[in-house]
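TL;DR need structure tokens for one chain.
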Amino acid sequence: MQLFDAHCHLQDEKLTGDLAAVMARAATTGVAGAMCCGSAESDWPATLAVAAQFPHVQISLGLHPWYVSGRQPGWLDRLRALLAAQPRAGVGEIGLDHALENADLAAQEAAFLEQLALSIELRRPASLHCRRAFGRLLELLPRFGPHPAGFVIHSFSGAAELIAPLAKLGACFSFSGSITRTGNRRGQAAVRAVPADRLLIETDAPDLPPVIDGRVPEGPNEPANLVHVLRAAASLRGVPEAALAAQLWENALRVFPR
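>> reply
TL;DR here they are.
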């Protein structure tokens, strides 16, 4: 059984000190691929270093909405140059976050649109963050039409009713350990509603750990915990874990081609 972690941050300092062991533990649970997303100019070099160290890890580079206020002049040109030098890299993590306190939403939106346009121009898959902003996302995306390379909304937290209109624009939907929480009924309903060929799972390591044996483990989340997300998704969809894993692997390699 091969698993693909569709969204993680292996360049995070919570993981880099022991990254070889982290990846070895992931391999023992079947994780054979991962999408590692850079989030700020400051972590793009570390994200590139992860890809150089682990060939089975794919990367995306982008400016996360949390870090838009710290962007430097010429950031988009630097991103373009890095992507040109990394023909397998996607664009991300980018997006909208209306839950962020004191956010400059206009700057956030401008950075998102510039990066989304870049991903379309380069025909690279995009990894999207969207928190309490799905209404605005659905207003913005149709300006571009269906994304030629597709995009992934990571740790999807929207209602099931949003899935069909977003899928028409090229979306896939990735679910994290949040679906293992019994109170997350909206997320669990969304897992059931996503078309089989649009479904992905992730850890968002080192964040969003799953519930394991009735409790949330201490310490940073890591890709080895992806198997618990798989187990929850298979249970919610009423399918065997192995069958779902095969479908998810196929989906991941279509969205993030090697």
